[in-house]
Specification:
22% strand; binds zinc ion; Aminopeptidase; six-stranded mixed β-sheet; Alpha-Beta Plaits
Length: 389
């Protein structure tokens, strides 16, 4: 294979064409990237998941010395199921409005596309410290890939100085982010004919009470907004993402499962709300269910937990990213990213990438084409810095 020169635009088209919805394997994309890197003389290491159907990729350009920069992105995207798209989500489509449409254009294949397209520039630059490319799987379903990726990266690479997670921030520097924690809570009631409500316990009705309780708690948070941090919305948020249960219109439902979670603001106790919810479920709701039938149960299991990002821990990464982006201030974001996982491994990390989070996860997701050039400018300044170290 000869080393191809590919523009960021062409590389984005190539990455978008892989349907890497989190439920699918990402290996076709990873194999393509690995072959592309190999053609440019860049070796990469794969870190697979348990069943081998997905993999993270780690590649280093430059000397294997400490003090390098990790450029991190996730390869998976959220589903397009049921969304009204005007164009094929897997075909990058440029429109007259200057936007590039396609699933993953903004969240977040554009960052990887720019990094990969610039591989020849990184190679030619005689870097004094390395650039590490880190591509993960399963970010959108709980950052499961990044946990393995960061473990391997921390174990096998010379200690990096900073990590840039290229989630969409319109190339502004984000150094504070919320946590993200999710749970499955299973309500088990007791089936009865729906006319005989005194004989059974509807799991759905009690799950509904829990949802109501979550709404009340959410209103409490909203009534006490943070004023010390620039964050929208300025409080912890709660969401019930899915609900399933029941079998028929005339049966009290035996089971109801909620997938729910919350995002605490930077610096808040990530686990306080879990403790509070467990206490309310166990001490208030369960006794009421059991009063109707002793077989009733409520079980809550942890599904995912992404650490947040506190601003003051990231001094150097922040200064570097501000210099490379040309920005003069930092921002906070309410969504969780893989940044907290790198940070938890002791790697100073900030978020800075092309695209606007407002377009993420939407039908007709798009990237303003000018964001590709903005991200290339960031990388050029990074290269300049890395060759002067
Ligand atoms: Zn993302």
């Amino acid at each position: 294979m000869t080393a191809e020169t590919v523009t960021s635009y062409e590389m984005l088209r190539r990455l978008v064409a892989f349907d890497t919805t989190s439920r699918n394997s990402n290996l076709e994309l990873i194999d393509d990237v690995q072959a592309y890197l190999a053609a440019h003389g860049v070796e990469s290491m794969l870190v697979p998941n348990d069943d081998g159907k997905k993999a993270n990729l780690i590649a280093t350009i430059g000397p294997r010395v400490p003090g390098g920069i990790v450029l991190s992105g996730h390869t998976d995207v959220v589903p397009v199921d049921g969304q009204p798209w005007d164009t094929d989500p897997w075909t990058l489509t440029e429109k007259a409005d200057g936007n590039l449409y396609g699933r993953g254009t903004c969240d977040m294949k554009a960052f990887a596309a720019v990094v990969l397209a610039l591989v020849p520039r990184f190679k030619a630059a005689d870097l004094k410290v390395p650039v590490h490319i880190a591509l993960s799987y399963d970010e959108e379903v709980g950052c499961f890939g990044a946990m393995r990726l960061v473990e391997r990266l921390a174990a096998e690479l010379p200690r990096p100085r900073a990590c840039i997670v290229g989630e969409p921030t319109m190339m502004s520097v984000v150094n504070a982010q919320n946590t993200a924690t999710t749970f499955f809570t299973t309500f088990t009631g007791f089936e009865a004919h729906s006319s005989m409500t005194h004989l059974g316990v509807s799991a759905i009705h009690f799950a509904g009470e829990f949802i109501h309780w979550l709404n009340v708690v959410q209103d409490e948070f909203a009534a006490r907004p943070r004023t010390d941090i620039d964050l929208v919305p300025p409080h912890t948020t709660i969401n019930v993402g899915t609900i399933s249960g029941g079998t028929a219109g005339n049966i009290l439902a035996r089971e109801c499962v909620l997938l729910w979670g919350y995002r605490t603001t930077p610096g808040e106790d990530q686990w306080a709300l879990e403790r509070r919810a467990r206490a309310w479920l166990g001490e208030v709701l369960l006794p009421r269910m059991r009063a109707k039938h002793p077989a009733a149960r409520i079980e809550t299991v942890s599904r995912s937990a992404i650490p947040g990002l506190m601003p003051e821990q990231n001094e150097e990464a922040t200064q570097l990213a501000l210099a490379w982006s040309g920005g003069n201030r930092t921002h906070a974001v309410p969504y969780g990213t893989e940044a907290g996982i790198f940070r938890a491994a002791g790697i100073p990390t900030v978020i800075c990438g092309p695209g606007d989070i407002a377009q993420a996860h939407q039908p007709n997701e798009f990237l303003a084409k000018s964001q590709l050039a903005a991200c290339e400018g960031f990388m050029d300044r990074l290269i300049d810095w890395a060759r002067r170290q």
